[in-house]
Amino acid sequence: MRNFRRSAAALALGLAAVTTLSSAGPSSAAGGASSAAPAGIWSASLEGVHGVAPDATVRQIARVSVAGTGIRVRLGNPFGATPVVVRDAWLGRPIAPGSARLTPGSNHRLTFHGARTVTIAPGAQAVSDPVPITVPAQQDVAVSIYAPGSPVDDHTFPPFAYDPPASYIGTGGDTASAVSDDAFPGYPVIPGNTSSTAAGYHPGQTWWMDLITADLPAARGTLVTLGDSITDGYNAYGPPGQRWTDVLAERLDALPAGARLAVANAGISGNTVSVQPNPYDATGQCCGPPAPQRLDRDVLSVPGLRTVLLLEGTNDIGGGTYAPPASAAQVIDAMRTIADRVHARHVRIVASTILPMCNAAGSDKEATRLAVNAWIRTSHVFDAVLDFDAVLRDPADPTVMIADLRNDCYHPNAAGDQLIGRYIPLAAILG
């Protein structure tokens, strides 16, 4: 009970733990009208290439953050050494959340500049023509792609059970147009952090698809959350079973369409905020390029971008087998560079402090974390500061998160994600 009381106290503290550097309030636009401009309504940043696609269709499930009409899908091949050849691609509406079975009549063929197939060269992307359907807020779309023999540029992370993003890898052949789920078995369940091409259900794994946009979104623009595993949703197990970005998206959905922002999650587990070797993987394929190197693709290219929320630095400071712990100067320089590039595009950027990491008080790593957080709070580089550290740290030992709110030393659990998703002042996001 002592820790639950601390959790309540943390929320009360957190509601005051934001520094807003701009006096502008939320948009005064009212009513339910959609934005006139396209916007990103879902994303899952690609992190590496793992194997070759089998002679089977992958049906990917994505939950959009706001309603939208005229749905487009972006496919990418940033890491492959050979082209991705998409022979068939369809987009439909699942009959139930997370299901591979589609609502009759909802499945539409994807085309690319009018063509039914598309070849994506190494390092390139392809954006589909709009699909003339409307998808309600917080509902799923199913994107089915048949690209046998293509390099698998993917996104993988261990999610909470049976909640998108996810994919079903089919039993064989081109079944992209199928409404039924007969070719998309739900078992075996293959963990999302396992790069696998086996038939079955793959929670947390998607291939090639990194962005969904709406030509007519029920929002005035998009918030992109740029981060590592804490943003990706790593190990956010247990009730209520949502990432903090999903909690925030639901809160934004309660606003009028002319005031709200869609949420596009650009978190990648293991990612670093500074340009350096990845601490966990010598191949560089586990965790995406460092944030400054993927900023253009994963953030600045998103249609309707209005605000960036930056939460990174844990992996830099923690270090690992393949990279030593970063200095405060290294992390700060990277954050400043990202902020400068975002501001150069006349886009708002909000930053969060770095969460406790179980580094002993007085240790070099803890000194680095405290120095970076002090800079985030006082530098005035960002348009607003969200103090996630103050929300989740244990008052009795500020080097760790409150026990009831943490999964492990680096990651909140689902209750922790719920807390920070509810804490974020919407005015800090909306500007």
From TrEMBL:
InterPro entries assigned: GDSL_Rv0518-like, SGNH_hydro, SGNH_hydro_sf
Domain SGNH hydrolase-type esterase, first and last residues per copy: 226-419
SUPFAM superfamilies linked to this entry: SGNH hydrolase
Keywords: Signal
Keyword Magnesium: no
Record's signal peptide: 1-24
Pfam family, one: Lipase_GDSL_2
Name of the protein described by the UniProt record: GDSL-type esterase/lipase family protein
Source species: Paractinoplanes globisporus
